[in-house]
Amino acid sequence: MLRRSDRNLENIPVGALGLIPLTGCEKLGAKVNDYLVKWRQESAHQYKDDVAFNGYVKDNYIIGAKVPRFGSGEAKGILTESVRGKDLYLLVDVLNYSVTYQMTGNTNHMSPDDHFQNLKRIIASVGGKGRRINVIMPFLYESRQHKRSSRESLDCALALQELVRMGVDNIITFDAHDPRVQNAIPLSGFETVSPAYQFTRGLMRTYKDLQFDSEHMMVISPDEGATARAIYLANVLGLDMGMFYKRRDYTRIVNGRNPIVAHEFLGTSVDGKDVIIIDDMISSGESILDVAKQLKKRKAKRIFAAATFGLFTNGMDQFDQAYEDGIIDGILTTNLIYQTPDLLSKPYYINCDMSKYIALLIDTLNHDGSISSILNPSERIQNVLNRYKNGEEV
User: Fold this and answer.
1) CA 206, 212, 218, 222: dihedral to nearest 10 degrees?
2) Based on the structure, what is the number of domains in the chain?
3) Quick check: is 306 in a domain?
4) Which of 219, 238, 339, 340 is the most buried (most CB within 10 A)?
5) Is 379 helix (H, G, I), strand (E, B) or coil?
6) Tens digits of per-residue pLDDT, 274-298?
7) 308: domain range?
């Protein structure tokens, strides 16, 4: 279990805490704020007479921020209150396409580029008056364009450098597509956080008959890119691991990429075993469903797909069909990005709430405490695994 009381917070806060959820991230921001308010009210008695903790306990840490647009589509960032001396945490969901704005009388849906531009506008409106600026960007902007093949732009590296030049001290992201992109900003704080604990707990809360051993369960990487995640989860849970690799047709390009010809499997038998497919994102879902079908042909028992970000760019119809056909039993994604009401209503969908985890990270960083123990979930996974095996509530 993730407990604030388990940490030893000896340092005084860097500055008064300020939380700025940008447009499209208000829901997650409100949940994080609720945890922070609750925790600090519980520990208020320790610091009530200490001047260094002035403004430590509040009813609300959210600072109002607006990005109004002109008729031309251009915009400006506005803060509705002072941020002087504050330790600021900006939350941004670059994938929230449900947010719209008017431009020359037309309704436009916000793209990742629009959200990133809004983030820069709010940072610019701070005007250097904040004590420290921290950006929490669950899906790292342009993280799929993290390396250069031939004549291409390196968008993710450029975006990180731009944020650092604007005065951002720490960038926290979740399950970055390739963590090595932090090499672009080697002297600045960059953390990529894994939701492995939340996936494990979400699965345990939904299914009471799972057997976490190598005879009954297996972790699968759907491609070579997700191998490290699968190896980590398999090792922590004490399971075997298998992987698929994508055989592509490099003579053609369809929708900007080489089409996949087949998924080839490497690993021990999945016959009669429950299987967890783990990846950083489900985009269209074609790869995950193709892998699931291949596993069913190899007589896998139940198939659970866990991905940090559920984009579902082609809608939910093919997942509905896969669930009806018995190919997929459960899909786990986090609330770090926008979730459609349609997704949340699905019988096979398991929502993994990350707000408490984010609140814990913010609370610890505000105290200038070490977050290394929070970033490594192996001990917490072992604890919840033991409780589950003993029939206790998880």
Assistant:
1) 40
2) 2
3) yes
4) 219
5) helix
6) 999 999 999 888 889 989 999 999 9
7) 196-353
Nearest to 133 by CA among 145, 125, 141, 143: 125
Instruction: Identify the CA nearest to 201 among candidates 34, 349, 380.
Output: 380
> In angstroms, what CA-CA distances link 7 with 100, 196, 324?
41, 20, 45
CB < 8 Å & 24+ apart, contacts of 141-148: 141/94, 141/112, 141/115, 141/116, 142/112, 143/173, 143/176, 143/177, 143/178, 143/181, 144/177, 146/177, 146/178, 146/180, 146/181, 147/178
The amino acid that residue 249 corresponds to is: D
The answer, yes or no, to whether residue 226 has pLDDT greater than 90, is no
* Residue 316 · residue 344 · CB < 8 Å: no
Beta bridge partners of 102: 107
Tens-digit pLDDT profile for residues 136-184: 999 999 998 888 888 889 999 999 999 999 999 999 999 998 899 999 9
Instruction: Note the pTM of the prediction, 2 decimals.
Output: 0.91
169 and 297 together in one domain: no
Sign, CA dihedral 128-133-136-141, equals: positive
The one-character DSSP state at 312 is -
Q: Note whether residue 272 is domain-resident.
A: yes
Residues 6+ apart with CB under 8 A from 214: 238, 239, 240
* Pairing label, strands 189-193, 217-221: unpaired
Which residues are within 8 A (CB) of 304 and not within 5 positions of it... i.e. 6 or more apart?
203, 274, 275, 276, 277, 328, 329, 330, 331, 332
